[in-house]
Amino acid sequence: MSESTARVVFVPSGRQADVALGTSLLDAARLLGVDLASVCGGRGLCGRCQVTIPEGELPKQGVLDNTAGVSAWTDSEAEYAQQHGLGPGRRLGCKALVEGPIVVDVPQESQIHRQVVRKRAEVRDFELDPVITLHYVAVEPPDLGTASGDLSRLRGALQREWGVEPPFIDHHVLGGLQHALRQGRWEVTVAVHGGETIIAVWPGFHETVFGVAIDIGSTTIAGHLMDLQSGTTLASAGVMNPQIRFGEDLMSRVSYAMLNDGGAEAMTAAVRLAVNQLIATLADSAGLDLDDIVELTVVGNPIMHHLFLGLDPTRLGAAPFALASDEGILVPAREVGVEANPAARVYVLPCIAGHVGADAAGVVLSEEPFQSEEVTLIVDVGTNAEIVLGNRERLLAASSPTGPAFEGAQISAGMRAAPGAIERVRIDPDTLEARVRVIGSDLWSDDKGFAGTEISGICGSGIIEAVAEMYLVGILTSDGVIDGALAESSDLVVRHGRTYSYVLVPGQPSINVTQDDVRAVQLAKAALHAGCRLLMDNFPVASVDQIRLAGAFGSLIDPMHALVLGLVPDCDVANVTAAGNAAASGAQIALLSRSARATIEEVAHRIEKIETAIEPAFQEYFVAAMAIPHSSDPYERLAGTVTLPERQEKVAAPQRRGRRKRGPSEVRE
């Protein structure tokens, strides 16, 4: 080390080198390849390059007085601290200069590729790897002796100040470039997409950009507005998918497209309108302009994927269920009718197979089974259930046509998961009376203070618990028949035409679970269970280590009741857990991480697809899974936690109340 240089050590990276005295800590970090953020280019405006200078002697690094190795506070730092605050020991890396040997701590929030820590336990942390980078630059004004255009001088400024020179510029940006340069007095903030394309130029200093992650489901569309620089979620919202008026399930929508001229175009227009309304709602709730939204990611099942992109979905309606594309797609937002910044991009995650879509890819990206030794079964429960099975060695995927019963449709008192919907059910084995809990209230119906709470209907998680509870207390046989003999001793089992129904909530009007409701649930759960069994056969594996229930609905399902119903194969109850809306989480990860997009595109192409429609064993598994929980699987692992009724092949004679031990009582609310 010469007298004109000093050793600079950055932690936690451990990178170090001798740099010239008077070098800013930001420039030293760039020289060493240290991950230190900046938007303003060293002008002391953004505060992204904050570092901590540890005090005192650091003998391990040979530093006697660490704070002596850095220059005194500058006026720029004092001004920034007054306006925004600077924590103890913090300095702006762009203004603090090297004056001697020094150890510099780069806090996580100052790192470009920092860890994004999620608040919900079921959503994994991941590394922020921005697709959009912001660069504040000063552009040389033109003069009579300068032959170059404004774009060339902008490129020169990017190269000079940031070492980047994107080869492309969106033509919408080019049209407003001269105005932005002059309005900003030749100082502008440039947004670069993927290191390749200039997608926005704002006059002056512009330090934040935003994106929206969208999950287009058959029934609902969910959106999450995020700060692309920090990874923070600013707002979340959902809307009903208006395509429901064209058909409740996916195949009915494909049929609509086949049988009606302009049918596909009408469904495309409907979903895009809903997406734009959702984006506007999110922006309004966060107080943002649409112009600030520069990036969007989208997941959805293959038919939603095709209709959103304006692709013909009819090939997905019959074998071989050919996708127009199974690759990740990046398109200008304006080309798919999305209203945001005029040059915003939309990234659509890859599809996996004809009936396993970008939403399943989002689930895989969020859950990362490809990183695990354990064999995991991931089930994204919805109108069309998508199933992934495997570990780091191998991944399989399939879909099962469960229909809309799990989302409240086809159920006599069914409704979507909204305030007033029954979401939890417990039935007393002695009186057969049910107590329920509804969305919007933490109280059970037998709690003090529940009186007056509106009960509007029953949603998917509620109907699953209701049917499972009816089985546990003997109202249902294992074949799914409501025991009409109980009507002789209970007012809660009543005749309903040629069959019987169970009065879940007495009153005027009452909320009943009918025999048709039970059948709808059986059909849906049997299709899902059969799909799981096919994947297990093809892996092959007799049992799985863990089951993850994904989806906005799937994550609300109580694991014990899911197993009692036979929704999924037998597993230890403790190992059946909620994954949250993993498809939406995957869309959020892809929104914030460029490297995650490359990962899911690589992983998606090596997932093996099992087509349930052509598997000979599917029908056999389906029929066996119609029973509760199953006609041949005794569910021994579940039986270790819950006392299951003895299997009844037909309706039994009336039995005395309290005829069996109530197994799961100690594990219930």
> Which percent band covers the strand fraction?
15-25%
Rounded to an integer, what's the Rg over CA atoms?
Answer: 30 Å
Number of strands: 29
Overall pLDDT: 89
Write out the CATH superfamily name of the domain at 210-348: Domain of unknown function (DUF4445)
By secondary-structure content and strand pairing, the structural class works out as alpha/beta
**First and last CA, distance:** 69 Å
Topology:
Layout: E1 5-11, E2 16-20, H1 25-32, E3 50-52, H2 75-84, E4 90-92, E5 102-105, E6 115-116, E7 126-127, E8 132-138, H3 150-162, E9 168-169, H4 171-183, E10 187-193, E11 197-203, E12 210-216, E13 220-227, E14 233-240, H5 250-259, H6 263-286, E15 293-300, H7 302-309, E16 329-332, E17 345-348, H8 358-367, E18 376-380, E19 385-390, E20 395-400, E21 421-427, E22 434-438, E23 457-458, H9 460-472, E24 493-496, E25 499-505, E26 511-514, H10 515-538, E27 546-550, H11 559-565, E28 576-580, H12 582-592, H13 594-604, E29 608-609, H14 617-624, H15 636-639
Parallel strand pairs: 1-5, 9-11, 12-15, 15-17, 18-27, 20-29, 21-23, 27-28
Antiparallel strand pairs: 1-2, 3-4, 6-7, 8-10, 10-11, 12-13, 13-14, 16-17, 18-19, 19-20, 21-22, 24-25, 25-26
